[in-house]
């Protein structure tokens, strides 16, 4: 996919936190955290990209950067070809205004409670954004749309739910209300940041199905963040989307379900897959955990060479010295940041690092 066909396109994006002139900088006590490191990613029309990786690897920061909430330290983030930060800072030259971009890129969080005002009835919380973005829409028309969507997501009769306060809804009902609120704005992309993680396991599939159903109606793309590979697999498989695996700020592998689940190339992806037993029918219980059991490196003090080499059972001397670039499969879709993806790399003649 080229960046011109994309809804959102990130190119060489890096996001650092720290070194902001605070008191710790003065004493030289803080190194910046490179939460996102040189990430390029295109999200297509009606595409679902799932970001997966352990806590602190940079998923939320990358997600917020993709929707224009977090400014990148370097690199560009474009919405339909328009640089989001240029639109924000230099609106006169922008072909798409920053407010149009913010309208088109919505977010739903893990905690739906935080998105609904506890002191307002649900109908009010859902009406306000519609009113803001469509000031000419009559109150009757607004409520008609909200009621229709509530019916669509199975919250019937809608009035029973809409006239309650958020604390009178269950977690699953609140999350559905928040999804409806985002969809009412007819966004092009929704960042779903761990949006199903707080739900009971039994409700997660229901919520993912609902997201897919609404995607069909509204032609929405999703950037779906999860730390659970089986959820990532479910949504990517059903939508024909891609899974992107993050490790310490980088996308270390990206591809379709077949490529990531059945033909993983990166040792970290293989470790995630191993750690998700319900994905791995052929696992022998005596198999060793395919990752070296040391602490996750400090994101303010990244290792030399490949970020993953201290934990990688396949690491060789070159991995300690050189940072791997992105290797692409012949079709270009399956990408991996590991020397092992290149049959002719000097890695294969380099000495193993660990016994
Ligand atoms: N505003 C901030 N200021 C300083 N550091 C931050 C900030 N936001 C994130 N970080 C750091 O950036 C790194 C990536 O954080 P991020 O929340 O993006 O990861 P994550 O993969 O989404 O984690 P989790 O799954 O726990 O939410 C972490 O080391 C985190 O502490």
TrEMBL record:
Keyword field contains Transport: yes
SUPFAM superfamilies: P-loop containing nucleoside triphosphate hydrolases
Domain of life: Archaea
A Pfam family of this chain: ABC_tran
UniProt keyword list: ATP-binding, Nucleotide-binding, Transport
PROSITE patterns the UniProt entry points to: ABC_TRANSPORTER_1, ABC_TRANSPORTER_2
One GO MF term attached to the UniProt entry: ATP hydrolysis activity
InterPro entries to which the protein is assigned, alphabetical: AAA+_ATPase, ABC_transp_ATP-bind, ABC_transporter-like_ATP-bd, ABC_transporter-like_CS, Oligopep_ABC_C, P-loop_NTPase
PANTHER family hit by this protein: D,D-DIPEPTIDE TRANSPORT ATP-BINDING PROTEIN DDPF-RELATED, TRANSPORT ATP-BINDING PROTEIN
NCBIfam families: oligo_HPY
Family affiliation: Belongs to the ABC transporter superfamily.
Record-given protein name: Peptide/nickel transport system ATP-binding protein
């Amino acid at each position: 996919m080229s960046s011109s066909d994309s809804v959102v396109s990130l190119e060489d994006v890096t996001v650092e936190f720290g070194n902001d002139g605070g008191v710790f900088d003065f004493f030289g006590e803080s190194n910046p955290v490179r939460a996102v490191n040189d990430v390029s990613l295109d999200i297509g029309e009606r595409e679902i990209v799932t970001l997966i990786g352990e806590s602190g690897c940079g998923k939320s920061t990358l997600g917020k950067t993709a929707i224009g909430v977090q400014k990148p330290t370097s690199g560009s983030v474009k919405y339909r070809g328009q640089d989001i930060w240029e639109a924000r800072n230099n609106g006169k030259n922008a072909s798409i205004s920053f407010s149009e971009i913010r309208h088109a890129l919505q977010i739903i969080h893990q905690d739906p409670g935080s998105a609904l005002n506890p002191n307002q009835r649900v109908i009010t919380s859902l009406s306000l954004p519609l009113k803001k973005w469509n000031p000419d829409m009559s109150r009757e028309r607004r409520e008609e749309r909200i009621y229709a969507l509530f019916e669509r997501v199975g919250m019937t009769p809608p009035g029973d739910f809409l006239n309650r306060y958020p604390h009178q809804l269950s977690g699953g009902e609140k999350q559905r209300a928040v999804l409806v609120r985002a969809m009412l704005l007819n966004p092009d992309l929704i960042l779903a940041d761990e949006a199903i993680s707080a739900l009971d396991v039994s409700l997660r599939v229901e919520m993912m199905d609902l997201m897919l159903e609404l995607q069909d109606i509204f032609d929405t793309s999703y950037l779906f963040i999860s730390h659970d590979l089986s959820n990532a697999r479910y949504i990517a498989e059903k939508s024909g989307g891609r899974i992107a695996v993050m490790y310490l700020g980088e996308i270390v592998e990206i591809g379709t379900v077949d490529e990531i689940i059945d033909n993983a190339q990166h040792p970290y992806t293989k470790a995630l897959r191993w750690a998700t037993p319900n994905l791995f029918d052929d696992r022998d219980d005596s198999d060793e955990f395919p990752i070296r059991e040391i602490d996750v490196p400090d994101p303010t003090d990244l290792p030399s060479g490949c970020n993953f080499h201290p934990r990688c059972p396949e690491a060789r001397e070159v991995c300690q010295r050189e940072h791997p670039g992105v290797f692409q499969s012949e079709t270009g879709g399956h990408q991996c940041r590991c020397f092992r993806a290149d049959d002719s790399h000097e890695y294969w003649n380099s000495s193993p690092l660990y016994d």
